[in-house]
Amino acid sequence: MNQRFTTELLGDHPSLLEIAIEDEDAISSWVRGGEGLIGFGEYKRLVVSGPDRFEKARAWWRNELLNFDIANNVLGSGTGPILFASFSFSENEESVLIIPKVVIGEKKGKSWVSWIGNKPQPIVHRIASVAKPLELQWSGSNGVEWQARVSKAIAEIKNNYLEKVVLARFIDCKVTSPISVARILQNLAAEYPATWIFSNAGLVGATPELLVRLSKSLVTSRILAGTIRKTGNDEKDLALAGSLARSSKDLEEHEYAVRSVADVLAPICTSTNVPETPFVLHLANVMHLATDVTGVLTDSASPADIFELADKLHPSAAVCGTPTALAKKTINDIEGISRGRYAGPIGWIDARGDGELGIALRCGQISEDAKTIRLFAGCGIVNGSEPESEYAESQAKLLPIRSALENH
């Protein structure tokens, strides 16, 4: 028997990351600037792996949609049944797909609620205060060891056909009482409102990078590569932004990342727009070189959906390197860690195959007992890289999720 799936407009309610639904603790989120989607509970979950994980995810999602009697009184992108997806960086690791029991959405002043089952519309209320100072015990990646790995990568670039490789590192933290996902998300949203605040099966973070957005036939990808840390002094930061925009090392790294995305979109789009020069994206703690690449999908009998786009675009040069195959091999040989879902596609997909998938950056993986969290950061290594500078950059990239935890 099919499950009823209802979507209706929602009246007055707290902001998305302050919402709670009674008896539904699990939180899935994709929120930026107060708009987006937040899911509660789990109706169904699927874990997939392998080189065909995107196809497995599509097949499962399409099959699940057949089991819904959908009553969507709102319509539009992000309404109706929603899949929260978080894919692994490597094909050999696990990706997690979640269909929540309840989803709250907000966009351009319109709010809606979707839920599964024959019950009345769920009652939305404000989260009770969850702030609890945590005692934190840090351990993990040694700076000296990681810088040695960076030196190896630079040697590979100089002695091989490798142009760029992204190396990641992690630090671990043990805590005295369970970590509140809601509190972490609220802290991230307060400090980094220009990023996408995400949560999926314990993976929480604030990413500035959009792998792909598909809305009808319009494709958008925001590429970030090239980073400089902010000082907090407006005059100095303006000068640093200028130096970043002129940095040959950072411009080279950025060009590889933009080219990797543009080359994928060109064959499946009737037109693409690739700006000639990047802009400087200002975040709370760092600045990035950024480029928004757009395209219009080819009008064919079976145009690409977001699963296919993610499969084609991942991994981009921004999180892997150039050439892709050689960069992957170098990561496997040198990096020495399991990335899990760090640097993989994360976001949401609707019943039409539209959605938004970012890249899981500035994030941490919370353990099942919520007593430990592993924080990840990575840096793009090119011929002009210096190990000490890359380590400092990685420390800056760890700051958002680390600060959210310390201010818990």
TrEMBL record:
It comes from freshwater metagenome. NCBIfam families: isochor_syn. Belongs to the isochorismate synthase family. The keyword Transport does not apply. This is isochorismate synthase. Its EC number is 5.4.4.2. GO terms for molecular function: isochorismate synthase activity. Residues 145-397 form the Chorismate-utilising enzyme C-terminal domain. Keywords: Isomerase. InterPro entries: ADC_synthase, Chorismate_C, IsoChor_synthase. The keyword Isomerase applies. Gene3D superfamilies: Anthranilate synthase (3.60.120.10). Pfam families: Chorismate_bind. GO terms for biological process: salicylic acid biosynthetic process. It catalyses: chorismate = isochorismate.
